[in-house]
Request: fold
Amino acid sequence: MSAGPVSSMPVVWSPDTRRHDPKHEVWVGVPTPGTEVSARVDAILDAVAGHPLVEAQPHGAEALHRVHDPELVAFLASVHDRWLAGEYVELVGQDRVVPYFFPTPAMSAGLPLRDAPAVHALVGRFAYDTMTTVGPGTWPAVAAAADCALTAAALVAAGTPAAYALARPPGHHATPAGYGGSCYLNNAALAAQALRDAGRDRVAVVDLDAHHGNGTQAIFWERGDVLYGSLHVDPGTGWFPHVLGYADETGSGGGSGATRNLPLAPGTGDDAWLDAVSALRDWVSDAGCDALVVSLGVDAAAADPESPLEVTEDGYRGAGLLLGGLGLPSVLVQEGGYHLPSLGSLVAANLDGHEQGQVSGTSGERSAGSGPSAPA
Ligand code: SP5
Ligand code: ZN
Reply:
């Protein structure tokens, strides 16, 4: 992967993010090869070698509790040790935490539930799928990913125009008290909250990942001070997260109108995808936001095995130009993207586009018929 030209946007990373490395994820009851793997870190690092590297600074649990239930944080931090003590390695050879029991509303039927004393049964209180397993290095990596996002937000709060957090495992499916979709803590939500806490009045989160960021939506659902806008493959066509991400989900209470979902058909491609990015860009611009968080999933790419959206590298560069053109202080947070050979260059193209957009201030219209790439 070529390094490309020297760029100024800092890349915030941590070697600890490599420590979570799921060889398998349990899908439809079967261990299938892991998708959200440690090698993603190095694929991205190689491609952004022209950027200044900054190592993430540790932040305490209080920062995590700004968007997450302390019980989720404590559970994630301790559950692997509890799993080892439960002797599941000896019993069935399983050294990763995998739920098998889910106390859903259908199960409790309105009755009060106690916490399960057995850790293998307690897991389903927090985990909402079987793909998102916890191994020996998961918590250090999850904490490091959150630190990447918080460090990038601190840089931007201190005046850096934009910073990129090489956060993995990703975050946008993590809800206030739940984890799933390869996500444990919501890195983008942490960054948005940190910008609010640093004095920004209204923060927009724009989610470019191929999947709907149900966790980010849930965290800010009733808040008007953090907007959430997403374009993603239509859950109505069968894709994850299956039960959320429809266009009629627009927030409630003080957050009414502060959520916007643009579900897209499989096979969408660059033109319609960039039209949707433009629509979100205009929505953010009209709302008078003073900071931007981009949930930068690159799994909408044509080569990606986890989505059918068929977006190209030019598409991701164009999205960067459009969102950078808002001229807002920006934190870009890594989300999904699973095709290791192209993952890094997709990220690098978006970072380049964003920086170029911020410099040239292309906050005007996207010219009609501009095709796959947005105007320079
Ligand atoms: C952050 C992010 O992009 N999470 C994506 C979670 C969606 N995963 C759904 C996986 C559906 C099963 N895919 C089959 C893979 C077999 N290994
Ligand atoms: Zn995704």
